[in-house]
Specification:
It is built from 9 helices and 10 strands. With 252 residues, the chain is of the alpha/beta class. It has a domain at 100-166. Strands 6-7-8-3-9-10 form a 6-stranded mixed β-sheet, with helices on both faces. A 4-stranded antiparallel β-sheet has the order 2-1-4-5.
Length: 252
């Protein structure tokens, strides 16, 4: 049974249609990489799944929670917002720019959501946080401020913070694009480890090596539509659509 199901998802900004009716099913434990040219709708898709953008039309289901609109004329009311909040609580989101609170230590950054959102006791939250920081290789840095961390460390801290709320699905929007090349692999290694543990992960990326090595499926998007979906070996060696072939030509 799909943990993420998307049907007829549309999203526009003013007169520009960014998502043109996306249909997609994702199984538990899959690592899905979304690739395509800048502006093709990849990031908007993730932000809509997480409830950060209001969908215009269609339906999203994540871990048994659904969000739907029949058209963009349908009013956004308190009921919609409540459903969006429920959806958001089951998705961990990691952005390009880390977004750690600069005035808090790494430990406090990860503890905060657990005590505020989940009403967890501080002692319990600290114990869980230390375990998560150990998982991403940052326990020794728990008392450092974000500005004292390298870019790779800060992004691993952001992953730990997202994991702290025990999400059903992890969403990553270009998680390595702001990193120096030598720091990229340490972040990708955490994502590969989570994949081995069975975490469902949706990754918008330009890291073709990571997509080829780690993804269960690759989704190629162009101009707001899904052009092709395939396993890495198939997509990189013999893409079926000429648009996919042209995009991948520079990477092959």
């Amino acid at each position: 049974m799909s943990i993420v199901s998307i049907r007829g998802l549309k999203k526009s900004f003013d007169d520009h249609e960014v998502l043109k009716g996306i249909d997609l099913d994702i199984e538990p434990g899959q690592l899905i990489c979304f690739i395509g040219r800048s502006g093709c709708g990849k990031s908007t898709l993730l932000r809509t799944l997480n409830g950060l953008e209001v969908l215009d039309e269609g339906e999203i289901q994540i871990a048994g929670h659904s969000l739907a609109r029949k058209s963009k004329l349908e009013k956004i009311d308190a009921r919609y917002e409540k459903k969006a909040q429920a959806l958001r609580q089951h998705c961990g989101m990691v952005f390009q720019d880390f977004r750690l609170f600069p005035h808090m230590s790494l430990l406090e950054n990860v503890v905060l959501a657990q005590t505020v959102v989940q009403k967890m006791s501080r002692d319990e939250a600290v114990t869980k946080t230390e375990a998560l920081l150990g998982k991403v290789g940052l326990l020794a840095h728990k008392d450092k401020m974000p500005l004292q961390l390298s870019g790779g460390q800060a992004q691993r801290g952001a992953i730990a913070r997202a994991l702290a709320l025990s999400p059903a699905v992890m969403l990553y929007d270009e998680p390595t694009s702001a990193l120096d090349p030598e720091l990229v692999d340490e972040v990708l290694a955490v994502m590969k480890a989570l994949d081995q543990e069975g975490m469902t992960q949706l990754v918008v990326t330009h890291e073709m090596r990571f997509a080829r090595d780690a993804a269960d499926l690759i989704v190629y998007m162009e101009e707001g539509s899904i052009v092709e979906i395939g396993a890495p070996d198939q997509l990189f060696s013999s893409p079926k659509d000429d648009r996919t072939r042209q995009f991948l030509r520079k990477f092959l």
